[in-house]
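Page 47, continued from p. 46.
Same chain as before, 373 aa.
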Amino acid sequence: MSVSILFVCRNFHRMAGGVERMATAMMNEMIDRGFKVGLLTWDEENAEAHYELHPQIKWMKLDMGNPQNAAGWGLRLRRQMRIRHLILDFQPDVIIAFQVGAFIATRTALLGTGIPIIAAERNSPDLFDYVRHGKQLRRRSNLFLATSDCITVQLESYRKKYPAFLRKRIVAIPNPVWKPSNCHLSISRAPKTKLILSMGRLSYQKNQTFLLRAFALIADKNPDWTLALVGDGEAETELRGLAKKLNLTDRVVFAGSVKNVSDWYEKSDFLAFPSLWEGFPNALVEALSYGVPAIGLKSTSGVNELLQDGYNGLLVESTEAAFAKAMQHMIDSPEMCKDMGEIAIESVAKYAPSHIFDRWQKLFSDLARVHKS
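Result:
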């Protein structure tokens, strides 16, 4: 049975985030598996993807204003009409919309069409604990999710964080984790550069202000160690200012957004990962796949499932003192880091891409079969 899938994301233009990366990987893989694949975004016509898209993917761009800017009701209505037209012209058997905003726009545009729509959740519902009007937004989100044909989450433990009336339509599918091509070098690397790695967008969610303050507590004791912040984002100016205030200017590297992420994993001793919330933390599992142990917060869903304290990393309380103590423990215990690194590689083996994409293929095919019947 030939199946046509439409992926919907709000914007793709030069976006290097986890949503864009995983959506691209899924689209490319489904093309290779014989599916017809389309991509609908709110981007302007001259938008360019950060990650390489398969040439057979049909990318449809709304081209109705900058998707980064707030839209008035008139523009929203015109977008809804355009979304409906583009989707009906593409004739998908199943649609997957990434994040609740894109899902709501797609669902309302297609009322009465009967096309099955997957709401792809990319964060733990814990995020509502950290945003303004979180309780109201959570209720609103859940009501819209009830109109989906399926909700995908990234870890099975997230199911219980949703209300009971949504749980039966939830399917848990983690992100794929690719085995590094030079994985045999992961443990016996070149001599370490005494580097603590932080990989991720510079943002409130990733909690780098907390990390800088924690590092400041041990920096003087470890003058030959460096903290590298790999990524860019809206918090960069604030973080640079904080590093200067803490006298860490010469001890913290702001690497920006990089293509050669493997180089950073290869030369790092451990990953510092104090995120407040996550979905499926790509930087964390990638580090583990390279044999890099990590430190995370006990309170962070997803992180506390992928990291096992004393096994492939350390889990600590959400205080700067506790995080600093864990970093010092890693610094003082190179043999422990090596042992954890060896275990880390095995701990993410179950997320092999072929297995994960098989699950996506089955979900798409099952929903398309219902639509065609």
